[in-house]
Amino acid sequence: MKLQSPLGLDICCLPFLRDVFREFVGTTLFLFTSLSSVVLWPHLDPLHVALAFGASIALTCVCLDGVHLNPAVTLALVVGLRVSPWQAVLYVGAQLLGAITACGLLFGMAPVSAKDKLGINEVRNEFVCLYIYLYLSVNLSIFITYSSGKNKRPLQTFTSTINRKNKCKKEGHFPLLRSTGKSIQIGFTGCGMNPARSFGPAVLTLNLENHWVFWAGPCAGAILAWLMYDLLLYPRWTGLSDWIIEFRQVFLTSPSKQPTNPQSNTEI
Hints:
single chain; 268 residues; mainly alpha; Glycerol uptake facilitator protein; 10 helices; globular; Aquaporin 5; ammonium channel activity
C-alpha cells in the first residue's frame, strides 16, 4: 500500500525517497567540509573560508546532481510551483537533519576551545535590520545572476547546483558567486546565506539568539528573486491572481499534475 499526502502525492516511492536521502547526504557533506574551515582552523583568513565554502558546494553538487542544500532554494522552488509543498517539507527536514549531523561530527572532532561556538552565526542587536538588508541584497543578486541565463526552459532557476544536462553555462559560476557573497557578509555576521548552515551550530550549542535573522533574510531574498524572475525577467504570470489560480489547479484540484521529481522539473 502506497502512502500518499493529502494532496495526492506518493511520498513513499523510491525515486522521491532517494531525493530526500540525497538532500541529507549532500547537506551533511557540504556543511561538514565547509564548516571545518571555521571550526578546526578558526584563525583562517576570511578569503580562505569563503573559498572553502565555494569549493565544497561545487564538489557536492558535482557528485550529487539535483540537490538543493539550502531551505531558501527549496522555498523559491515551492513558490515558483516547481516543487510540491509536501516534497519541500521533507527536503527541508533532510537538510536540517544533515546540518545537525555535520555539526555533530565536527563537535566530536573539534578542540575543546572551539566547541562552545562551533562556527555559529551571530549578530548584534542594534544592527539586525542592517543584516537583514545585506542578506536580502546579496541573496537576491546571487539568485538573479544565477538564473539570468537565457535558455528556452525557464524552469532552470533558483538552484545552487550544477547539472551536466543544463545548456546554460552560468550555472558553473555559482560557487564563485557563493564565495563572493560570503566574502561580503563574513565581516558582519559570519555569513549565513544558508539557513541550514546557521541551524546546525545553533542547535548543537543551544544558542538561538537572533537565529530568526538567518532564516528571514535568505528566505525573503529567495522569494524576491523568484518574483523578479517569474514576473519581470521571464514572466509566467501577469499577476498574483494568475499564480493563485495555477497553484489551486496544480496542488489542490489536480494533484496528479504537481511535480513529482525535482530534477525533471528544475533541471538542477
